[in-house]
Amino acid sequence: MLKLEFKDRRQPGVWLVESVFTIGSGTRNHLVIDDDSVGEAHAEIRLVDSQLYLKDLGSFKGTFVGGQKVVDNFQLRSGDIIGVGGVELEISDPKTRPTTAGVAKAKSDWSLTAIGGDMQGRTIMIHGSMTFGRSSNCDIIIDGEYMSRRHAELSLKGGGLRIVDLGSSNGTCVNGKKVNEHQLKPGDKISFDKSVFLVAGPVGEVAATNFLDDEEEATMFRAVAPMPKAPPPKIQSTEPVSIKQAEGNVSAVSDGPKGGRFGMIAVVVIVVAVAAAVAGYMVVVGI
Fold first, then answer.
1. Is 285's pLDDT higher than 90?
2. CA-CA distance, 34 to 8, in Å (whole number)?
3. Which residues contact 8 (CB under 8 A, 6 or more apart)?
4. Residue 212 burial by CB count (10 A; 0-12/13-18/19+): exposed, middle or buried?
């Protein structure tokens, strides 16, 4: 539940529990502001599905949020500063307000690092809800040609980080795609105009992401199916060749006319050699 308070604390704050909450100098309003710059029925805040929407009721001095003029159905969030005439009001959430002044913010596991644009090299730690835009009332001021006064908002909830586009003229991109709302994860890239931010998150989530990436790469090199085993080499038989097999081999070699002629020549040569050897022996022994 949110509360509407005077920024200078001139009056007690009021809980925004009505479906239609009116603001003005007239006595019939839920919040009566006794100031010459405030119209009798100046503005109203509607509560729809737990969301707050601001509307100007045709006031002379106008209604503003963060310096941006509001006409109809401007969504309000905790931390917004509403200008009603010359009076400033603040939307606050007492649950998130620090109980002691000067208490340091808790360490955040989420951060943004600018990797493009005028803020390149700067790292921003994320705490609670933070707004981006050209307005000096934004948490992160980006003075770009295509930036809206209130462009987008980052919010931490349940340990996660979410980005919401606040109706900007040129949109909010995550990883190159325009989004209205998006749950961020480490490694995402947010871009507004020419500014690009790299999202860094809890170490555990980064480690898990790296582990998955390694597994995916390993899968790419894994064999689709086991390779078949090569058949065992054939062992040549060492059994002795039988006489009949030898004769068959000889006969196979000597088959045909050429084989017979060569066989005859071989026999003649052998006979001549034997005769010469015998003759030489006889000469030696004197027979």
1. no
2. 14
3. 88
4. exposed
Q: What is the C-alpha to C-alpha distance for residues 228 and 185, in angstroms, rounded to an integer? A: 44
Whole-number pLDDT of residue 126: 86
Pairwise CA distance, residues 48 & 259, whole Å: 114
Q: Which residues partner with 81 through β-bridges?
A: 90
Q: Treating both helix axes as pointing N-terminal to C-terminal, what angle do 243-254 and 256-285 enclose, rounded to 10 degrees? A: 110
Cβ(21)–Cβ(30) below 8 Å: yes
CA dist., res. 178 & res. 193, Å (int): 12
Express each pLDDT in 165-185 by its tens digit. 998 989 999 999 999 999 999
78 half-sphere exposure, CB direction, 13 A CA radius? 16
Sign of CA dihedral 274, 275, 279, 282: positive
The torsion region of residue 35 among left (phi > 0), alpha (psi -120 to 50) and beta comes to: beta
pLDDT at 107: 56
Which DSSP letter does residue 128 get?
S
Residue length of the chain: 287
Q: For residue 132, give Cα distances in angstroms to 136, 138, 160, 255, 283.
A: 10, 6, 18, 104, 129
Bridging pattern class, strands 31-32 and 20-24: parallel
Q: How many CB atoms lie within 10 A of CB 226?
A: 6
86-144: pLDDT as tens digits = 899 999 886 665 544 444 445 568 889 999 888 888 888 888 888 888 887 778 888 88
